[in-house]
Each structure stands twice: as structure tokens, then as C-alpha cells.
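Q: Got a minute? One more chain.
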Amino acid sequence: MATAEQFLDRFLAVVGDASVCAMCAIGDRLGLFRVLAERGPLTAADLARHGAVDERSAREWLHALASADFVTRDGDRFALPPEHAALLAYEESPFYLGGVARLLPALGGVLDRVVAGFRTGAGVPVEDYPAELFATMHRMAGLWLEKMLVAQWVPAVPGLADRLGRGGRVAHLASGDGRALVLLARAFPRCEFVGYDRVAANVATARSAAAAAGLADRVRFVHGDPSELDGGCVLVLALDVLHDALDLTATLRAVARAIGPDGVFLLLETDCAADPADNTGPAATLFYATSALYSVPIAQAAGGEAWGMMGLPEPVLRAACGAAGLGGVRTLAHPIPTFNTLYEIRAAEFTR
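A: Always. Here it is, folded:
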């Protein structure tokens, strides 16, 4: 009985945390965390006035977050501690993660189809996921790309910035909303860029972004799998997406052909242990759950291998690269927040 009561406490804590996630999603969508950070301490009436929301709703939202110690309470006034604001309120902060809370509510919209996929193994087509999910993923990835891609990740590879400055071809696997290639195109005007994505809506969004930036003549996007990558690439990017490859070996072989003797494969992948038993804690739980709700179902629906978000730890990645003719796998960094590892990879026969 005592053990059951302990687990009851644990279960209620988990359900309570899920409720906090929903509250954080609301706060992020409405900008309430930033209002609290910049104007707090505030009463519910103050928050409603400055945040342009309903006072009664604001009061319940504040009570929910105060009960979870996300905001502090002093009488009827509430505040967001600075260390919490760095994660929840300020998108310019390198620690900002507030938008991540919007992932689970978006994934909840396809729960019935995921449940059906559990029964059959048929998965869920990527096209069945809501636009809000992709908008959230693109927004969070975009914030990190703005801070890190040109300023940190490219310079981490010796000589890469100079090589891109001289011009060449760059490819991006699963290019999403096109943000990465737009950033690189602005920084390296002599290069040409192509992005590949299996989601038609992503391709349309990316093409619009390139056109709006005046870069459509140098940045193009292809709807489909990148198995037929053009050769002679100075750089190939795969940023937190390789685990979704339908055929990992075929994809890596295509990358090897594309980068040839002088190119670089810049890979960002989930930082995880090879033994699933060693992947514990809140971040691992989030990644496994997101994988069960998204990465595995979309791969199953497309007849893919379904590696999952935690399926490419470094030993597995190195072995897969070796089998595909890639070598010289070098760890460059663990970006902040440290959920991923950045790798520099080259063709095996050209490893330096």
C-alpha cells in the first residue's frame, strides 16, 4: 500500500506537470511571460491589462503556475524570477525553451491516429499532423539557428567559412521552413543552395521565405527525399532530422557522394546514450515520448526504418557512417541547451 501511494504521488506529479505544460503553451502564445518579466510583480488585473487578456482567465493561469513554483506569489501580486524568464520569456536568450511547451498540445491533436497506429503498426502520415506542430518546430529551430548557425557552427569547422565565401553548392536535408538556407545565403552570397523536404507545406513555406528575402534565384527547395543529392557540395546539412531518414544507409551514401573529396557533412543529432537504460530524466522522457508520437509514426507510415529521436547515439552513428563511406566523424560541440551534439563528417577515403 505504501508503494502504491508513492506511485500515486508520482503519477499525480506527472499529470500536474502536463497541466503546467499546457499553461506554459498558453503563456508563450499570448506573450504573458514577457509581460510578467518586464512589468512584474503584477496582479491578475495588471496582467490582463498589459497582456490584453481576460482578467478571470489570467487569475486562474497565475494560480496554476504559482502552485508549480513557476511564478512567485506575494499576496495578490505575481512575478517571474529572472532565471525563469531566461527560459520562458525572452526569445533572444540562449536558454529560451518556452516554445517547446507548445509541442505536446499540438501532438495531442493526432492522438487518436497515433493510437490506431499503435494497434496496426501502420503509423501516421506526416501530412496528417497539424500545421501548429510544424510552426512550433520551425520557430524553435529558427531561434537556435539565428543565434548559432553562422556565428558558431560554421566557424567550428576549420576553413569552412572561407570555402563558403568563395562559393559553391550547399544542400540541406529536411530543410523545414528554409530558415537555415536563408541565413547561409545572406552570409555567403557566392553560394547556391537547395533544400529537400518530404512535407509539401514546408516546401511551400520555405519557397515563400526565400522569395521574401530576395534569394529565390540562389535558394531553391525540392519536395521529396534527398536520395538524389547533387554532387560537388561544399556543405550538406542535417539538423536534428537524420533520425527520421527512411533509409539511413541510402541517405548517408547520398551524402558521401554529394560532398566528395572536399565537402563537409554538418550534422546535428540528439545527444543520447547507446543503452536506452542510460537515457533517463525529463529530457529523455520528452524525447522518447515525442518520438512515439511523431518520429516513429511518420517513418512507419512511409515504410521507413523508424530510428526514433534517440536512435542515433554516437556509436550507432559512427557505424552507420562507416558503412556508407563516411568517416572522420568529429564532435564539434554540444550546443546550449545541451540536448544535441554537432558533428563534422567527411567522406571516408578523404578523411584528414
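A: The longest helix spans residues 2-30.
Q: Perfect, thanks.
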